[in-house]
Every structure is written in C-alpha cells, then in structure tokens.
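Worked example (supplementary).
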Amino acid sequence: MTIASRQGIDWPGIRRYWDLLYVLAARHLKVRYRGSFLGIYWSLLNPLIMTGLYTAIFGSVFASYYDNSVLNYVLAAFTGLVVLNFYAAATTQSVIMVVWSGALLNKIRLPVSVFPLSMVAANVFQFSVGVFPLLALVTLLISHNPLNVILLAFPILSLILVCLGVAFFVSALYVFFRDLHYFYEVVVFVLGLSTPIFYPAAIVPDNIKRILVFNPLYPILESLRQIVLSGEMPEFYLVAHALLNGLLIATIGWLFFRSWRSEFMDLL
Amino acid sequence: MELIRLDQVSLWRRTQEEFSYDLKRTVLSIFEGKYRQPIKKCVLERVDLAVNAHEKIGIVGANGSGKSTLLKVICGILLPTSGRVRVRGNVAPLLELGAGFDPEISVLDNIILYGVLLGFSRREMRRHAMKILAFAELEDCALLPVKGLSSGMVARLGFAVATDVQPDILILDEVLSVGDERFKQKCKQRIESFWQSNTTILVVSHDLEFMKQSCERILWLHKGRVGFLGEPEEAIAHYLESSQMN
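After joint prediction of all chains, the assembly is encoded as:
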C-alpha cells in the first residue's frame, strides 16, 4: 500500500499504485471476456436466470410474505442474488491472486496488496456497468424517488468493503495453505444458503435468526431491499450496521494481510 | 556519488523442502503435537557492497552462491533479514525477460501492462508503445495475443520493453542477447550503448572473458559471503581457484 512519507502524501507512489491497479484490473476483464459475444453482460444472465428459477419454484409459496405480490418476490430474489454473486465472484477469484503474482513478485518490486485489490476492482467495474444500471432503474421505477438511487451507494459500498477484507484475508492465507480454495468454496456455499435470498427471513426460527445476524451479507441485503423495494428511507440502524461491518471486516482483513506479508516471498 | 550501499546484509529464507502447503495436514500436525517451526537457511551472510555512479560491477560465483538473490535484494524484491540496503535512482531489473507477459492478451496490451509493472506510467507506455513495437520488429503482431508469438519473439518483446528507457541502474542477470542472430546484434548494440553511457551496471554472468573485459570491479560470492571484491583479474583467479579445489 502506498504509505505517506514524513514530508506528506506520496503522490508518485499513489499514481503508480493507481496505474498498477488499472492495468491489472483491465487485464482480468480482458482475459475473462476475450472473444465472448455478450462480453460483460454475461454477468447479468446468471442472476436473471436464477431469479426466474426461484420464482417458478418458490414464488407462489412465499408470495404471502411479500404482500401477496409475486413481483416483490422476484425483486427480493434478484437483489439477493446480485449481492451473493458479487461476493462469491470477488472473493473466490481473489483467493489465488497473491500466489498468481508470485512469478512477478520474484522479478519486479511491486506492492503485493494491489493483486487481490485488482480482482475486487475488476468485479466492481463489471458490477457497475452490468447489474448496477438495472438495479438503479428498478429502484427508480418502484420508489419514484431519485434519492433512493443515490442511497444505493451505501449497501454497495458496504459490500465492497466486506469483499475487500475477505479478499485480503483469503489471498494471504492461500499462500500458506494451497488447498484453501476447496474449503473456501464450502464457506461461500454455507454463507449463501444462510443468507435469505430466495426465502423470506421470517420463516427462519428465532433461535437460528440470532446467528443469522452475524452474516455480514444480511444487513447489506436487508438495507438494499428497503431502498429498492419500499421507496421509503431505509432504517438508519441497518445502513450503519452494514457499513460498520464492512469497515471492520476490511480493517481486519488488511491487518492480517499486512502482518503476513513479509512471509510471502519465501513461499512464492 | 554512491548509488548503492549494502551494510552487513544478511538474508535467511525458508528452505524449499520444508514447504507445507496443506491446511488439512497443518491442522492435523498441530493436533498430533508434531508441528515444527519452519527451518530457515542463510542465503546471504553479512554482505558489504558500495557502488558508485557510472561503475560497472560484475558478480561471479558458483551456482547457488547467492548471486541472483543479491540482485533481488538490491532491486528491493527481497528484504534483508538484517543489515541495511540503500539505493538511489531508478533501478531497471532484467532479472528475467518476459516475466509479466500475459499469454491471453494482445501484444500492445502486454507492452503497457509490462511497462507499468516495471514502473513506468500508463501515459508514458502508450506514448512509447509504437517505438517498442518497432524495435522488437513486431508491428504486424500488435493485436495478436502473446500466446500466438514464438518464444524468440516474446524474448524480443521483453528486451524491447525493459531497455526502452535508459535507467540509472541496470541490473543484468545473464540475459544479454535474445532472438535470432540479427536481433542479437541489435541487443548487443543497445547494451553496448548503455555500457558506454553513464548508466551504473550490475551484471551476473558465467562468461568470464566478457566479465574481465567489461567490468571495472568484480565481486566473487562464495556460499553467500563476499569472497573477494576488486580487480577483475584477481577476483576471477580466486573464483577459479576455489572451484578447482572442489
């Protein structure tokens, strides 16, 4: 990470870090979508198909929890899938990033942190041109309130922070444990299932729900749904909870990454 | 002016065979009480080196004596376990040409990617891209993915990007010329022009004749320690003597 020197902020360092982030994120996107016809819009197809599937199977059963409206169920499932897909993609793709950069780090002096960060950045870009416009449009149509479109920034920012923290943590851990990605796949699966995406949170028994609150995606998803679906201001408590969660996880992830960083080079 | 200074630099690294990359096994070994701290090995031991501006320094030594590791410490890739490293000016490492190329993306994208990795800005690289393509004689391949190039072409591209801008300190690890005979001449000329100019050069090579002719001082590394530093003739004599003893 660029560190401020004693004289003040290290502008050339920040410029260099930004340039590195840009070329690496661009590289990830180019490799992913080279020669594909729909390009970045493939990322929209998955949540749309899954939303259709969930609605077909669970829509009529769960509609009563969504004011007897199947449309509300569709939107709830879609927002849930958007959040989960972003989380799953950004973090699982980041797992290998430090090890992936090993050959480079052995040849050229580079800030290690830019590699997991670049993968999250690539996903943020993909999100902002793919899913985000659709999400903003739906918000505008349902809430008739342009302010809500701006408020979308809070849950999305929280989500990015959570992903950053987890990406730093898992990519550093993967240097030491190269079988981590099998284990992490299970973690993502459990996290996805314990997030109320295609089922209403109301059907979860109370004693389980107390555990559910520790799922970092839960407050993000709830505040996002309030903004998209209700047209009212989201509960301040929920937004703050999501944001603090994000900041906490990002900080913890970064601290782990930083304290293990000196060990990386011997293992790459 | 002194550009590089190493004071009592030592480096300990984990030995390769100790690597355990397995979460399952590590957890099990902790439960069984068999977990051991990783063993570390001394790769560089109290190395002192001072290089002045415009100096051409050669480094010789047997395989595994720490030559490349020393270059990595000077580049800032590896941090010393103890001791101090000070480097002034921008360092261009030529540790391995072509590390940093991505086979999937185009030649042009790779020039910019590799250049930014080496420390140039994106704007600079876009300006220089055509010149680099011309030097590597790959203008016709600009939009081809790098995996479509032959290995000689990739090496040419690597050389062209890495030597595009004359650095203050040039670090060569045995890569003096690449490609076919004609391109080798071009490489030689470019390195020659660096040699004539004010660039400070550190070079690792097993070509002792070349080292004798072109270096002002030679550092002989022996098992991670400085065996000798000074007159090329004398340094090489020491090195040859020690290799005959074994």
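Two points are worth noting when inspecting this output. DSSP finds eight helices and nine strands in chain B. Chain B has a mean pLDDT of 82.
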